[in-house]
Amino acid sequence: MDILSLFVIVPVLTIIALLFTKGLKQARLVSMVGSIFQLGMAINLVIAYFKERAINDSIMVFTKDFVWFEQFNIHYSIGVDGISVALIVLTTIVVLAGVFISWKMADLPKEFFISLLVLSTGVYGFFISIDLFTMFLFYEIAVIPMYLLIGIWGSGPKEYSAMKLTLMLMGASAVLMVGIFGIYFNSNADGGALTFNILEIAQVNIPFEAQKLFFPLTFIGFAVLGALFPFHTWSPDGHASAPTAVSMLHAGVLMKLGGYGVFRVAMFLLPEGTIHWSWFFIILAAIGVVYGAFGAIKQTDLKYINAYASVSHLGLVLFALLTLNKIAWNGAILQSLSHGLLTAMFFALIGMVYGRTHTRDIHKLGGLMKIVPFIGAIYVITGMAYLGLPGFSGFVAEMNIFVGAFQNPDMFQRVLTVLAVSSIVVTAVYILRLVGKIMMGPLVNEDFKNLPKVTWYEKTGILLLLIPIVGMGVAPLWLSDMIMASLDPFIKGVL
Q1: Taking Cα atoms as reference points, which of 66, 79, 74, 181 lies closest to residue 130?
Q2: Three-state DSSP class for 66?
Q3: In whole angstroms, what is the distance from residue 370 CA to residue 343 CA?
Q4: What are φ and ψ of residue 131, in 5° steps?
């Protein structure tokens, strides 16, 4: 069995095992074992990747190819580079942390964990696919469970939020499908056979008129999942109604498919279309960065604050990609990883606070540092990392983005870069306000004096996220070098 297909097979085997479990105890045990095994596979993949890279300079390594539908040249084609390896590791960490944070999920636990694992299966398959049709198939597998996870296990207006999320993402999928088929039917422009294989299409000179037409469709199809302004409105509502682990996977993992798809498909396969349209979409991305930050300031619900912060930080990913600069691209990938860990951590902490106080309203919270010091301390650390404090993952990512983006001598892009940089100041405002009010401020509710202590499984989930956040900030070079080495094939098309 090849090393990559295991990332699809193991979650499926875990799902099958879950079908035979009875009760919460068995369901969470099977989910934990399966998720730990996936994390072990990811660590092994990193080690194997560096060994393979020492002797193999191909764009993708560990490639495998099996024919699915010969008539349309659809293959199960898989392979990875440094970017997809890093995102696979992120996925395994967030999934395992989500299992621990959901340790006491009493409502239909078997079905809940099955849905989580179906989502993660789609994500793994998406990151390893180098066939557009197969990639799109896994993309849909990852997106569809969100409707059930929010609609069944969510809170508040969960039916509305689930339906809004589904309709927005399905609409984007329809647009994306048109873009993918547009690429497919132009993949024989040099006289070869039609193909869905990304590496083969990258060698084809797709006509400029076709690139100009299909780039915006492909970009928007993926970027909606990455919270592109003004198509971001599904995200805050979805986050607010989702259960804690679902918010963690939604923001920490699922939304990364948007930026990855933009980079791997839209920009790589349609480079001339990228150059033609970059000025337009970079304006939308810059607006999203600033809008998300100011939107977070206006919110009073902890989940909505984090959701709008995610819109801002993921806007930075799209902004960095559209600058067409190698350093900024490196920052975009690092930002995807950093945001995935940080936003998952924030949602985990918010879930822990809500589970004890039964409120997410910041006006009803205060003085939590003295009552639950573990939550308070981690919240402060995560907040500092979120606003880009040196020594944490956020600083490394954002510095690469801003330095790379400002290298462009074009005044238009430099002005947008300064505008995007200003979001850091706004981020500091709402982060420091939150820390001061709900953690350091006076006790607002006397009923909160005796809140339950943090459990071992909650601490385990938090530490799983905290260790790589600090690790990325303290020792980023090995990860940055792995990503930078994978960017050269993309640069050739647009620079």
Answers
A1: 79
A2: strand
A3: 24
A4: -110, 125
Q: Name residues whose C-beta falls within 8 Å of residue 275's C-beta, 6 or more positions apart in sequence.
A: 324, 494
How crowded is residue 202: how many other Cβ atoms within 10 Å of its Cβ? 17
How many of the other CB atoms lie within 10 Å of CB of 313?
Answer: 28
Which pLDDT belongs to residue 394? Answer: 78
Tell me how far the alpha carbon of residue 260 is from its chain's centroid.
9
Residue 366 banded pLDDT, cuts 50, 70, 90: confident
Phi, psi of 62, rounded to the nearest 5 degrees: 55, 35
pLDDT for 73-87, tens place per residue? 788 888 888 889 999
Place of tokens 């539908």: 69
3-class DSSP state for residue 351? Answer: helix
DSSP 495: -
pTM of the entire predicted model: 0.91
Token pair 């037409």: residue? 213
CA atoms in the 13 A half-sphere facing the CB of 396: 25
* Mean pLDDT, rounded, for 308-324: 86
Single-letter code of the amino acid located at 266: A
Q: Is 317 exposed, middle or buried (0-12, 13-18, 19+ CB in 10 A)?
A: buried
Integer Cα distance of 209 and 195 in angstroms: 19
If we measure between CA atoms, which residue out of 472, 323, 336, 478 comes closest to residue 406?
323
